[in-house]
Design a protein that fits this description.
By secondary structure, this protein is mainly beta. It is 12% helix and 51% strand. Strands 1, 2, 3, 4, 5, 6, 7, 8, 9, 10, 11 and 12 form a twelve-stranded antiparallel beta sheet that branches. The longest helix has 8 residues. The two termini are 24 Å apart.
Amino acid sequence: MMSSHQAFAQTTSQDTPNDWIITIGGSTEYGPSYQGASRGSFNFVPSFDVRRLGEVADYSAPDDNIDFTVLDIGGVEFGPVAGFRTGRSTADDRRLKGLQTVDWTIDAGAFAQYWPIERNLRLRVETRQALWGGDGLVADLAADWFVPVDDKLVLSVGGRASLANTTYMSRNFGITSSEAATNGQLDAFDANAGLKSVGVAVAATYAFSPVWSAQIYYKYDRLVNDAAASPVTSVFGSPDQNTIGFSLTRSFQISF
């Protein structure tokens, strides 16, 4: 995606300080139907980015959520971030009968990131709270290595770790006694806060033109601790969560 950003940066000579670059797009991905599922389904994830014209955009990983940097202190960037969470119901798996439905929701919070090796190694953390549905808090940690093959193609690979509070874990992996009785196949289970998963994400991003970019990616997460021990995962699903996806973005120059 860098060639697209650089092309816009080269057009600044006759632009005003109020010129911005807006990048919109979306990803179509195939992955687990819900947290802990062994069955897959297709999902669409929108993307959005905004920056000042002439400002060089950072490389991004496929699971970065929508963010905006408002502070840069000693090279550490801070700002708000928002994401999208899919839900869970018996439409995803009839065997979930009796378990509470988990509604889709938007979450929001803050992110911080730092480049120990500029344009190559990035460390990032996002902390996001569900805005409705009582779906709890998650914190995602990532360390990504970016390799620009040429001015159009960028490859990346990075490790992942995700933590969640008790509210999130109980809603997605816990089973009450009444739910277990109604379901008839699963035992009651208390899911507590802690490390939820570890994994890896790899991606290839290609700029077709100064405004169009595409990315293909693969993500693997291994559920651990209570997320893996939950009967939702151990009986009906799998701790191995695989996702493949394709995204397309388009950039526009606008003035305010």
